[in-house]
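Q: Hi! First time doing this. I have a protein sequence and I read that you can turn it into a structure. Is that right? Here it is:
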Amino acid sequence: MTRDPVAPEPAGEGGQGVSGQSVLAVFAHPDDAELGCFGTLASLREVGFGVHIVSLTSGSSSSSPHAAWRTAEAKESASVIGANLVIENFVDGGLELKRETYACVAEHLSRTNPSVVITHMTGAQDHQDHETAGMAALTMAGRCTGVKLILQTEPPLMNNLFCPNFYVDITGFMPHKLAAVGQYVSERGKPYVAEQAIRDRATWWARQAETHEVTDTRYYEAFRMTKAKLHPQWLVPGLSAPAQEPLA
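A: Yes, that's right. Below is the predicted 3D structure, encoded as structure tokens:
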């Protein structure tokens, strides 16, 4: 299939954000980012990051009888946090690891200049499009010197191959995540988009992240970190920042 360039559709101010930094989320389908990392995207938006979401397909081959709604639903979802959304037109269910796919991801990396990249976990024996999108994003992001953090999200279905080593507290941003996922009326028949399922998963990761510290209801998103660049000063409150830009 020949890929036609798709212009970004800004749902907010976009760009690098007031912090001068941005996050790029590269996923296969509309709703993948919402399920995997929307709380994290909302938290980064809160501290001034520009938030960019790229869906490589429109999700039109979904088993839902209303799959055609997903593009409009994705736009409404992105607007919850004022994220910039691009929906590409690769074939849903037939996303391939080829030059055009790599070139597309490279274009978005160049356009957004992110310090954080989030994508699918690879090697999870998950949906074939997830594997392709994740591999293309990891490969191209790994070549960008400005990318300080690369994270892979949990697959939508529980998977014993997913062993997280990076956790983000999204307790204050769970309403944003639920509002974003809730825009996908077309996908409501799938059990993993149910509100209780999302809450249960997030509280499970909170127990893993905080271990003995959890005394009230907390929500976390979990990731597999594949790259991190930081200075120790960033971990100690009150120390002077280094000359280079911090991660957040």
